[in-house]
Structure formats: structure tokens, C-alpha cells
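Quick one, T. Sequence first:
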Amino acid sequence: MEFKNILYEKEDQVVTITINRPEVRNCINNETNLELHDAWKAFRDDDDALVAIFTGAGDKAFSAGWDLNDAAALEKLDNYDQFRVAVHGIDGFCGYTKKFDIFKPIIAAINGYTYAAGLENCLLADIRIASEKAKFGATERRWNIVAGDGLCVRLPLVIGYSRAMELIITGRVIDAEEAYRIGLINEVVPHDQLMKRVRELALSICKLPQGALRTDKETIVRCVGRTVEERTFIETEGVMSMFARRDKHTEGAKAFLQKRKPEWKDRGI
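C-alpha cells:
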């Protein structure tokens, strides 16, 4: 796929989506936002794409947030009621951040500054691997901008209520080691090893049968905010899906008993 502000590449069933505006530290303007919407939907709907890697171009930033040129130009709303209806219907202001409909694995390769909307975008990922040079912050605080792309929703789920409140209220910038300690990222690697490590992980996930993996991710996503009883119901519905797949769970069990490798013919199903 061809875009102006992002790169969309697929190799070995791994899609890499790169915010490609290094000259402005991969800040997200309206045009980039719409391209990200299209890119994520393309990955979601591509049966041959199993895992996504999400990163920023260059070696300075994953994304430093919303492009303040756009922010400065948005001075007033022509019609508040129309705006209110519109914002509830969009996929996100600075990326595909208001949607929860991708159940394939997503890995963020965080290569530098990850601020504001950049932090919100990295929270789309299921696994976040960061360069030792990465920095994180809810820096919207500095400009009196609301964290409107899922930060107030996703961050407490990742690092807990108290830590999320502290970062969101203070706008404090933290380094990769602290981000790892509080659970914001899964792993810290040397800067020059980041993409190698992330791609290695992505390819290892591609080798797995995908059906149960996606069901388990969907179960976790759909269970957020539910009662315990509702969560067990959703999980049980996931169990039922095993019997509808072309790649049967019985192949895995039989392969183990027969001391051979399972033969997954339809790993995307």
C-alpha cells in the first residue's frame, strides 16, 4: 500500500506500519491520522497478515504526539452538537486509537520519544519493546490538551490506576528503565538491536496456530469492565470457537501424543 506519511510493508506475513515523518519527530497530523486508520484496517482484514509491527521512522522518535500545527489551527467549533456527534463516530484523532477490533497480535518497536498521542498509539500494541533510548510521557499537560486518544482508557489497564494517574496528571517524562519497571513496556533492548528483536518475536508468533491465539486476545479485550460472571461467559464462548475452526485443536493434541510436530494448514483461521 502507498501512503504519504506512513510506510506499510508486508514480509513473511508480518506487516510493519511506520509513521514516516522523522523531520517532525513523527508527529501525527490529520493526514497521517487518516492514513493510520486505513493501514490498521488493511492489516485487520488481510487474511495473509498474521502479526503487525508498529514503529516510527528514524532513530529519534516513535511519535512525539499530535502535530501542534494542527492543534494551533483548531481554534473553535462551528457547531458543538455536530462536533460531539462526529467525535464519537471516528476511529481516533491521531491514529486507530478508539477502536478495539483487531485481534491479531501487535508489537510496538519503540525507538525514541513516545509522547502524548505517541504514547496513546504505542498502547495499541499487545507487546511493547523499547530501545534503551526511549522516553515516555503524557506531555499533553504542557499545552492544555486533553488526552483524547485512549490514554485515559488504556493506560490504567496497562500500568494500574495510581501510576496512570500520576503520569497523566504530572506529564512527567520517564525513561525506558522506569517504563519497564512499572509495566508500561515488556522489554528494553540496545538501540541498534530493536528491530531485529521485534522482528524475531513477530516471526516466532507467526509460526504458532493463530485461531486460539486470536480468540484469547479477543476474550481479554471483551472482558474489560465486565462482571466476573460475564467474563466467564465470554471465555466459554471462546472455547466454542475451537470446534468451528478449520485448524482443529485435535491436531495439536494428536501431534503431541504421536511425538511429531503439528501440521497447521490454515494458521490464520
